[in-house]
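Email to the structure team, subject: DNA sulfur modification protein DndB model.

Hi all, the expression group asked for a predicted structure before they design truncation constructs. Nothing fancy, just the tokens so they can compare against earlier work. One-line instruction: predict DNA sulfur modification protein DndB, return tokens.
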Amino acid sequence: MEAFNYQFTALRGIQAGREYYVVMCPLKLIPKIFLFDEEEIPAELRAQRVLNRARVPEIARYIVANPTEYVFSSITASIDGDVRFEPREPRGAERNVGTLTVPMTARFLINDGQHRRAAIEEALKANHLIGDETVSVVFFIDTGLERSQQMFADLNKHAVRPTKSIGILYDRRDPLAQVAYQLSQQVPIFLGLTETEKTTISNRSPKLFTLSAIYQATYALLQPSRGATVPKQDYALACAFWSALGDLISEWRQIIARQVSAAQLRSEYVHAHGVALHAIGIAGHTLVNTYPDDWHSYLTPLATLNWLRTNRAWEGRAMYHGKMSKAGQSVQLTANLLKQTLGLKLSAEETTLEQAITPTSKARSME
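Reply from the structure team: attached below.
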């Protein structure tokens, strides 16, 4: 009857008075034993969320593109079946090491890791050689659908995604992430003024920009291909561009010289916020493409622009109802104003978006 069972070498543990098991499962076995609830079943009758298939290709590409470096956290699953654990020794250190036997008729239900499971299935189609590699799986004995649903809630209740900034800081595969970090260490307006852990900056923080804001703005400036190596000349361009603005904008010169606090700039000026930095990157991309050899000489209008938050030209663009806005439309509308200030033409899409601004707002924008 062994042919009708799955057998795993397992470690046994205890949580909340219940046994659970940790096994190493070959990747090629993952799609065969772990099945999802049908998507058309109502949520109250399922034990997990509906699979978001848009996420699967990205995770699968990550596995295929990094066959010697990819890493996965454990999949957590419940087993509804007659499970048997046979320890190597009845007592001592190996009493919790043994063989876990699970009938093939048992029901396996993923509590955490359904997108990893789907991505593994796709990756195996592209590279079957990874099939004998393993992923750790934590098995709980299912006492009914009610417990599986509670397990899903418990596993996700306290899960916190890392911030974009710290993700960029630690990312060694994304060349632009490394460029953003290098800029934060070399460009005067970023040096010592970059928040590398958080995506938002508190009112009293001595930091001016987040690392994620530098990343987004530099991506908008250079517009490299995703995952492609950033040429040295592009890095030099980004370094020169942001450094030039640090010399040009008077308030930026003051904070570089530590003559004004970051908190004061954030409370009074639009250019001390990520939405403006991103918008400058967008406008800068057009400027550099239009004047590749002497773009420096065309930056001067940004020095005389009224960056004060009290300037009503920013309402409906970088600001809504007196508050800074991070929305994508706000970024683009702010970039439109900067491009007009620099004497640059708007694209057809930008012109269409500009038409959404009321006539009064348009007039204010040109003040």
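The longest helix spans residues 232-248. Confidence is low (pLDDT under 50) at residues 38-45, 359-367. Ping us if the truncation boundaries need rechecking.
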